[in-house]
Specification:
1111 residues; alpha+beta; Alpha-Beta Plaits; 7-stranded mixed β-sheet; 4-stranded antiparallel β-sheet; 40 helices; 13% strand; ATP binding
């Protein structure tokens, strides 16, 4: 029977299979609900039977734990109380295990302190620190009571795959009790089947560079005479790797593992990181931690991650461990502000289309929900987004809503820790987009919003037309963008302006300038404009002013310069105006702030120009800030704890920064100097750079032999080749005196206010764009240095903006550019996991025997632990072992019947833990009791909500009850909850089916859907009501007509034919009486017709009748 094919039903009642008996047994052992509810069938069985009725198919639960005082604590398959995990004092929690019972529990062999010679729990904190510091001479004694077994040989029986309550896979030997995270030798894990590759057990694999997967596991099949190697990939392809290429071995045990924190990876190399992120992305887990950094991979679809319910879940999580999320970063920043009083910052970076703008909005939304204000200023802060996106965002080939400027949003908090205001600072707006766009891109959103959303009066006032008729907008074939409604967005911009206090005159003036920029693009030179745009005045000290006539191209460039300056000045005015609307009413009331930086990531294109140099210079500065912050804090902590540590060397990118901004020979200072000298060009600028830095004079600089007008900068993220074309013009961020005079002479006070006077212009003329940007960047770095930073690295998974597509080489490149690989290495070399002694004791006391025995017997583990003055610090190998032992120990402490005592879980928890620990527990000393009370109330709320939802069969109420239950992992605990969740699933399915059926109009499926809805009394769904009306209140012929229309719309030719036939049948059935002979006296049957014919008697009447149809 073991080799037969087995079939089983899943939790939704669907038939699954075939699978082997061994695989079925592993499936049943991994899910308590499946083991309880599943039915199975095999060829030798007469009928389906419950899985639990088949001997040996459902593994027995683990044996009950025994406690030191002799009390037997019953085991159970699931936690009676799943308390929020206490992570105080810790910065990393690895796999994200949720505690089932928090606090002082015990494992099966006893409690900590048994060797101390005094009361076991007089001071558990000192017990833990002391025992971890014991020398190896104690190891033998500890090993006697808690032996640490070695991994058995592959032939050792008894290994089964199990899962913790939060879904993490581990392995237990039912014969020996041994546990491990890694699949035992010769054991095939069901988790590995979810990987995009299937590895053969026992084979040795290497991470091979691959164009499709970036890195793929390959098996060495041949080594050539020249040292090159051929590797066979699991998909059958063969890849050749050169002799000098170093390859990483594939850790097959870790290949299928999935960690919330990449620091937990056993082999934290580049291939494994790319593989792990891809695995998580395909499971819709777009957020992953790297220590304190959050990696966010853009899913390009709504995963329901930012609902108000999600905000509440993360806001009220307490000590509960939740999956990585942008809300966690925002929450850490806010809590850090409250606890330390130090200003915080959230630094969000990534390339265009990676999701920076969305991450910024979600951070601000979370802060607004958590902190609030006394005057709704937090809502005004959020209202700035539609305005800034309209004027600063555009469609690019990489992103339909790409921010074409950087911004730093500083949210101010008062003495009550509520929001009192904010400030926006913008960086490096892409002005060139106003006058020209690349293929597949378009101009800033506001131009299209104004043309399509303006009222008739506005269109007449501003002279608006269709966007395709304006020269600045019709440079692309299609001016529309999928999923962007320009008219609706324009209404949102107008509404935001009104709520932010813009006057009608200000709003009209703003849109008037936008329209003026459009008309500048269509400019025909005439009247006073001729002199401003077709000539320029040359002033030489000591000589008369000379008028220089410009060529047609020069005049066009002058027109473009005016348009770019006008739009840039308008954008600066908007930012300043928004800042006035959201500024604190009393600046003295500001006590602290949280800054959110949405900045462009490192950029490398086929052609890189001045803008890319400025952007990459910014990222060099931010990378240096990250390195210094990370290492400085790490080493300061180690020194304060008095532990032994080795200084971790890191790559200092100061030489690259010196190359870019060092005076007087840096790239930007040298560019400024070229503007002050006569007869200089882009070519003379590059020649000067080659002379200053080329030929090996600077290690971070290189020349391009094939292109003398180009140069290379070796950035921290890799070398970038820059084309010098246009460097001088782009850096010369000034406008001619003639154009300044033209705008200064305007009759519009608003337009005049956008531009400085001639005298002010002359004073600022010496400041170049590069110089301005350096000053802004210096101010930004000063602001960041006074904050405690939090980092979000946004990653774009594919170039086509397709949902679910993961292009590994592209992700690999972004991870390298963003410094993620170095961040993982930094954290791995240090001690990324650290708990205060008390927090460590509270978390791991339940498994102290196994932990201490393992540490003292395992030299490899012991070298990864440091016991400091106030904290215990350790690396990921230790953390993995701690979490595994703790998981098993806690599961053995679960009592029977799963929440059979939930009417008073606090008392039950107190009694059982006191029995286990042998001491009296107070609420103040052991927060688990307060948590238990919180959990009891949460259980009651969930049960009440579910009971009401089931009574009225309301989807909204069912969803709310389900969310309450899911927040405390209570969906599968009681029969009532399971029934409620099953009802919710049915309602969801019916709603989805009904939404589809009102389009497809399939009669049989419609009847089944309505019948199913009636069976569970589900009547609130509008689509089901439509189905019912169509089936029972619509005439059959009208219903058939609607079906025909649906079939045609869906291009279902076969169904359209069948419905057409049915329609004709219905017509003839309804109209058959009208074709009866009695209604037509002139008609007759063939025999009657033959008898009426006036022929002789000799005529064969039968033959004549047969010829009836021929006539």
């Amino acid at each position: 029977m073991a080799s037969s094919a087995w079939y089983y039903t899943d939790d939704a009642g669907r038939q699954c299979g075939p699978v082997s008996q061994a695989d079925l047994r592993r499936l049943l052992s991994s899910s308590a609900a499946l083991a309880r509810d599943a039915h199975v069938w095999e060829a030798s069985m007469a009928d389906w039977q419950p899985a639990s009725a088949i001997p040996g198919l459902v593994p027995a639960p683990p044996p009950p734990a025994t406690v030191q005082v002799g009390t037997n604590v019953q085991g159970s398959r699931r936690a009676a109380v799943k308390i929020r995990t206490d992570i105080r004092g810790g910065t990393g929690t690895g796999r994200g295990k949720r505690a089932l019972v928090e606090g002082n529990t015990t494992n099966q062999t006893g409690c900590i302190g048994a060797d101390s010679g005094r009361s076991a729990h007089e001071n558990p904190t000192q017990d833990v620190a002391a025992l971890l510091k014991k020398s190896s001479s104690t190891a033998k004694k500890v090993a006697t009571s808690a032996p640490v077994q070695q991994m058995p040989a592959p032939s050792s029986p008894g290994w089964v795959e199990r899962r913790t309550v939060d879904g993490a896979v581990y392995f237990m030997n039912e014969a020996t009790g041994q546990t491990t995270w890694d699949p035992p030798p010769g054991f095939s894990s069901s988790a590995s089947s979810s990987s995009s590759f299937a590895l053969v057990d026992g084979e040795t694999y290497w991470w091979v560079p691959d164009d499709v997967e970036a890195f793929a596991p390959g098996r060495l099949v041949r080594t050539a005479y020249n040292g090159s190697r051929d590797f066979e990939l699991p998909n059958g392809r063969t890849v050749t790797v050169g002799k000098g290429v170093d390859l990483h071995p594939v850790n097959t045990n870790a290949f299928s593992q999935n960690y919330d924190d990449l620091v937990m990876l056993q082999e934290a190399n580049e291939p494994m990181i790319v593989h792990c992120l891809g695995k998580r992305f395909r499971d819709d887990q777009i957020y992953t931690n790297v220590g304190t950094i959050l990696i966010a991979v853009n899913p390009y679809r709504d995963l329901g991650l930012y609902s108000p319910m999600k905000i509440e879940q993360y806001k009220n999580r307490g000590r509960q461990e939740l999956p990585p999320h942008v809300f966690v970063v925002a929450d850490q920043a806010y809590r850090g502000l409250l606890e330390s009083g130090r200003d915080q910052s959230v630094i969000i970076s990534g390339e265009s289309g990676a999701g920076k703008t969305e991450a910024t909005k979600q951070c601000l939304q979370y802060l607004a929900e958590c902190a609030g204000s006394n005057n709704d200023v937090e809502q005004r802060i959020l209202l700035a987004n539609p305005i800034l996106e309209a004027f600063g965002n555009a469609k690019t080939v990489r992103n339909s809503n790409s921010s074409r400027f950087g911004k730093y949003i500083e949210v101010f908090f008062g003495t009550s820790s509520r929001i009192v205001g904010s400030s926006n600072t913008n960086y490096l707006l892409e002005k060139s987009r106003v006058v020209s766009q690349n293929a597949g891109e378009r101009n800033y959103h506001v131009f299209f919003q104004l043309c399509r959303g303006a009222s008739p009066a506005q269109a007449d006032l501003f002279g608006l037309r269709d966007p395709s008729t304006f020269a600045y907008l019709n440079q692309v074939q299609d001016t529309y963008v999928d999923k962007i409604d320009d008219a609706a967005d324009f209404a949102a911009v107008e509404g935001a302006m009104q709520l932010l206090g813009f006057t009608d005159e200000e709003a009209t003036s703003v849109f008037g300038v936008v329209a003026a920029v459009l008309h500048l693009g269509d400019l025909q030179f005439e009247s006073t404009l001729v002199a401003a745009f077709t000539t320029r005045l040359m002033r030489i000290r000591g000589q008369d002013t000379t008028t220089v006539t410009l060529s047609r191209d020069q005049a066009g460039n002058m027109r473009h310069a005016a348009a770019k300056f006008l739009y840039a000045r308008l954008f600066d005015w908007l930012v300043a105006r928004i800042n006035r609307s959201v500024a604190p009413a009393d600046r003295a009331a500001v006590r602290s702030s949280i800054g959110v930086l949405d900045i462009f990531g490192f950029e490398v294109f086929a052609t890189n120009s001045f803008e890319q140099l400025c952007i990459n210079y910014t990222n060099e500065k931010l990378q240096q800030h990250f390195n210094r912050h990370t290492f400085r804090l790490e080493e300061a902590l180690y020194e304060s704890e008095g532990i032994t540590f080795q200084h971790v060397a890191y790559i200092d990118n100061q030489p690259v920064l010196d190359l870019i901004d060092g005076r007087p020979t840096g790239l930007l200072p040298a560019l400024d100097e070229e503007l002050r000298l006569p007869r200089t060009t882009d070519a003379t600028y590059v020649a000067k750079l080659h002379a200053l830095h080329g030929g090996g004079r600077h290690p971070s600089y290189g020349s391009v032999v094939r292109h003398p007008a180009r140069f290379v900068v070796r950035h921290y993220a890799g070398p970038v080749e820059y084309a010098s074309d246009g460097f001088l013009d782009k850096n010369n961020d000034t406008m001619s005196d003639d154009l300044v005079g033209l705008f200064a002479a305007s009759h519009s006070p608003f337009l005049k206010s956008l531009f400085p006077s001639r005298d002010e212009m002359a004073r600022t003329r010496k400041v170049t764009l590069g110089g301005q940007f350096q000053e802004q960047l210096a101010d930004l770095m000063v602001s960041l240095e006074r904050t405690h930073p939090h980092y979000i690295r946004c990653v774009k998974p594919n170039a086509d903006k397709r949902a679910g597509a993961y292009t590994a080489p592209m992700v690999h490149e972004q991870l390298r550019y963003s410094g993620v690989y170095e961040a993982v290495a930094i954290r791995k070399r240090g001690y990324p996991f650290r708990y205060e002694h008390g927090a460590f004791a509270q978390r791991y006391l339940c498994a102290c025997r196994a932990i201490i025995g393992a540490v003292q017997l395992d030299d490899d583990l012991r070298e990864h632990i440091q016991v400091g003055r106030t904290r215990i610090l350790y690396r990921s190998p230790v953390h993995r072992r701690l979490e595994l032992e703790r998981t098993v120990a806690v599961e053995r402490l679960l009592w029977a019947d799963r929440l059979g005592e939930r009417s008073a879980p606090c008392d039950a928890v107190r009694q059982r833990l006191e029995q286990a620990a042998g001491l009296h527990m107070s609420d103040d000393k052991y927060p688990i009791l307060a948590d238990a009370r919180w959990y009891r109330e949460a259980i009651r709320d969930a049960e009440r909500a579910m009971a009401e939802a089931v009574r009225v069969v309301s989807r909204d109420l069912l969803e709310d009850a389900g969310a309450r239950a899911a927040a405390i992992q209570y969906e599968d605990v009681t029969d009532d909850m399971r029934a409620g969740m099953a009802l919710l699933n049915k309602v969801r399915r019916l709603a989805d089916d009904a939404a589809s059926l009102v389009v497809t109009l399939l009669p049989d499926a419609m009847r089944a859907c309505v019948a199913d809805a009636d069976a569970i009394r589900y009547a609130e769904n509008d689509d089901i009501g439509r189905l019912r009306a169509l089936l029972f209140d619509t005439s059959p012929e009208r219903f058939l007509q609607l079906q025909l229309k649906a079939a045609v719309a869906l291009k279902d030719a076969g169904r359209a034919r069948d419905v057409t036939i049915a329609l004709k049948d219905a017509f003839f059935a309804r109209s058959a009486a009208m074709f009866a002979f009695r209604h037509y006296p002139g008609l007759c049957a063939p025999a009657e017709w033959a008898s009426r014919r006036l022929f002789g008697m000799a005529v064969n009447k039968a033959a004549l009748a047969a010829s009836f149809y021929a006539h």
